[in-house]
Structure prediction request, 218 residues.
Amino acid sequence: MNKSFNYLISPEISKLRHFSPKLRIAILASGDGSNFQELIDLSNSNKFDIDIRILITNNSNAGCLLRAKKSNIPYKIINNSNYKNKEDFEDEIMRIIIEYDTELIVMAGWMKIMSSNFVNSFRNKIINIHPSLLPSFKGNNAIKEAIANGSKITGCSVHFVEPEVDSGSLIMQAALSISNKENIESITNKIHLLEHKILPLSISQAGYLIRTSFKGND
Ligand code: GAR
Prediction:
C-alpha cells in the first residue's frame, strides 16, 4: 500500500523516552498483533527501552501468539470459556500480571471488556488503543461505523482505561481523512500504520507518568 498520506498526530511528540531500568510491560491482545510486533521490533533494535514481560491472549489461534513464540516472549493463553465465570477469568489475568511484575498493561487489540474490579485494580496503569477518534465510534466496529456514518475524518486513539468502555483520558490521537475512494481495507491499513506510531509514543508517555508519580512515595 501507499505509505505516504496526510495525517495529524497530537500531541506532537516524536521521541521515545529512555527508561533505565527498562519499562516492564504486559501486552493483552486478541488478534493479529501487528501493534505487538511493532513493540517487539522497537525493543529488539534497542530503539525503545521496554521489557515485554508477557503476552496474554484469550485466543489460541491469534497471530499475536505466533509473534510471541517467534520472538521468545513469554505468553499465556487465558480463554474465558475455560473459567467458571468472568471473575475467575479476570482473577487469573490479574495473577499473571502481578507474577510477571509489570508496571504498565497495554491493551493492543484486546477484544474483551474488563470489569470495573479489574480496571480499578490497576488504576492508571492500563492503556488501550482504539481505531477511532474517541469519543466517536466506541466498540468493536469502529472503522466500519466511521465509514458507514459518512465521516470525512477518522483515526486512532490511545487512552488510559476506565471502567466505562473506550473512555478514560486520552494520551495521543492520530487523524486522517477519508476520501470517497477509500474502503474499509484501505482505511484499516492506514489506521494500523498510525497506530504503530502512536502506541509506542503513548507507552513512553504513560511509563514516564507512572515512573515519576511514584518517585519518593515508597
Ligand atoms: C487495532 O486496530 C486496535 O485499534 C483494535 O484492534 C486492532 C488490533 O490490531 N482494537 C480495538 O478495536 C479495541 N476495541 P493488531 O492485532 O494488528 O495490533
Summary: The chain is about 35% helix and 20% strand. The radius of gyration is 17 Å. The first helix runs from residue 34 to 44. Residues 161 and 167 are 7 Å apart (CA to CA).
